[in-house]
Amino acid sequence: MSPTALQWTPTHGEPYRPVAYRPARMPSSESLARSAALRTRMDERRTVRAFSSDPVPEQAVRDAIACAATAPSGAHQQPWTFVLVKDPAVRQRIRAAAEQEERTSYDGRLGDEWLQALRPLGTDAVKAHLTDAPALIVVFQQRYWLGPDGTKRKHYYVDESVGIAAGMLLTALHLSGLAALVHTPSPMRFLSQVLGRPQNEKAFAVIPVGYPSDDCTVPNLVRKSLDQVLVEV
Length: 233
Known about the structure:
Blueprint: H1 28-43, H2 58-68, E1 80-85, H3 88-109, H4 112-118, H5 129-132, E2 135-142, E3 144-146, E4 152-154, H6 158-175, E5 179-180, H7 189-195, E6 201-210, H8 226-229
Antiparallel strand pairs: 1-2, 2-6, 3-4, 5-6
């Protein structure tokens, strides 16, 4: 795979040119109804590790990625790349490399404290979701802008920007009726090699996308309540 063909050039050092922004104000009743519905819908989201191999609407996945790409970013540098992996052979290569790293991690690299934290989730070194799910979205963070002539330009708040985009991606996928998982094998350098990404990109997460399998189970977890996470001053 080659880097993106269409080269985007950052608007570096250009003067501020504001444009009007006058979105229609939503009536409070509609705002409350929408927020309540969204809160309920998002509370249904679960991390899925058992996927059906059934195909998913590809345009829904593309639309979710487009939604993620609307995320705010430091200096509007949009330091992200989303690689949609559908080829079963490539997904198999990713799984083989990921499981090799995971075996090392579970055999001692993670440490006892981390392994104890993972125990309620029922995870292990086997990552069948990487091949069972019909698609993977590999999120890369662009540590700096790299021009076609090799010119480099620093990006700012990359971790924060890509993290927000990944969260918006998960939300969009869930609202589209699709299940997902955030998988972060460590280290992830093999993803750049398998997917042929340029030197300025660093893998951030692998997100399998699909439908839950017929026998899917999830951990019996409880989320913190609003009063446990909200502080008002």
